[in-house]
Batch of 2 targets.
Target 1
Amino acid sequence: MNPIVSAIISSIIENILESAMAPAPAMPPSAPVGIVRPALQNGPLATMSPPNNGYAQFNDQTLRLAASLQIRDIQNRIVMSGSVQQPVPVLYKLDEYGSVQRVWVLTQEEAEVAEQIIKQKKSAPPK
């Protein structure tokens, strides 16, 4: 084999192995403290238990999950329902049939801010 080709292949393999062994970058924060993602400023705030057989517990209420369910994690990525392994604070949206259509998993800070925003909207005089 040509020594130049051999050196190139060795260099490529070495770079691949180095990048595979490098530590993963730190997860970016979801949002600055005190800021709630715009889509999250409406809707019921609850603690959601892990989904099971098409249903999930939202506080003391068991709700059906829509076939078109989207769950967004704290980095606002769409995740599978099986990725929720423990109770988490969420805001959710129901579809026209009363099934949960969208779920946004919140950080503790987001949950506190969202709760304050929801309380302010409820106590504000109607426009």
Target 2
Amino acid sequence: MRKPVVAANWKMFKTRDEALQFIYAVNDQVPSKEIVDTVICAPAIHLRSLVKRQGENIRIGAQNMHYADEGAYTGEISPNMLVSTGVSYVIIGHNERRRYNNETEDDVNLKLIAAINHGLTPIVCLGETAEQFEHADTDYILREQVRTAFKGVKAKDVEKIILAYEPIWAVGTGRSAPSELADQKCGLIRRIVGDLYSPSCSEKIRILYGGSVNPSNCYDLLTKPNIDGALIGGAALVSDNYIQMCQQAVDAVKYKYNN
């Protein structure tokens, strides 16, 4: 059974004091890392402070990185810098980076390969806009996003990657995709990976759902066969909510095991 991932994406929220208050509140409350991978993806300015204070069962991730090891890229952060900070994960291709910072599918591919080469676990975001969804273009969009992102990725590295299906029309809107639809699209992504590599690769890769996930819908989403966790925005800014959703991931594992 694939180990679930509960990843918080704080986006541009929390001061240093607020970030430290959060990690002190959750460190001893999250499940064992043997059962669930719990991740906090924080603003870059907080990463070192959080890494120094992360508990045994929690890991810290970045929200973005450049694909180059170094260079004249003012304001960017390299994979080398993240590794030296002690970060374990990095979000790649979030829809807000694509929308506001003009990131392309080729950028996502370069960042994914750089993350793998530096031993970082990439969480690669995929998803369609409302217009694409309404025009039934979702399947085509997902196929193209996966194929471009995985260009040049070796089969032995596929299981090191985490994918996150985040329909753009659901992110930050309070309108989560129905769990059956989310599972269907995550299943499609899994089949696309299988077509590119092998059924074995597709069964090993973990696929998350993101888009208005909260304590009221998290368990239902995580019990679906193709959904291996959640990438959570606003609802994960509150420590009690985050702890609750981590526990729901444990309950979802039990449900899947017994069914």
